[in-house]
Amino acid sequence: MNFRKAVEKDVSFIVEMLADDELGSRRENYQIPIPLRYLEAFRNINADHNQELIVVEDANNVIIGTLQLSFIQYLTYQGGVRAQIEGVRIRKDKRGCGIGKRMFEWAISRAKERNAHVIQLTSDKQRPMAIQFYEDLGFKATHEGMKLHF
Prior knowledge:
It contains 6 helices and 5 strands. It has 150 residues and is of the alpha+beta class. It has a single domain (2-136), classed as Aminopeptidase (3-Layer(aba) Sandwich), CATH 3.40.630.
């Protein structure tokens, strides 16, 4: 498997994976051509050195997974850096093959390279299998998260 920063031509593959589940299909708008909002978001992410949108390729250079890793600088923890994982997806026909575990091993290693002292994620409560997967990797539900949608 190959891990690399996404390039603009990857955006349609990423959005297709984001939309390819029950929750994602309700909030994403996958179509060809890809809506301009996704390309604008990609350009913003790509321009920010604290954002890494990653794709995972198989041995044939076919994209089989994606995740976004954000590095958040803050004052607490003596000016620490927190790594945030978002948008983790694996192509439907490749799930259950150990790819997710390898993606998280890569993300944890990358967070350590960037001197993050913690790596965190959120998961929708409607994804119990994903939550169990994260717990099996050693993630702990230490805080109660809240959102206010606009």
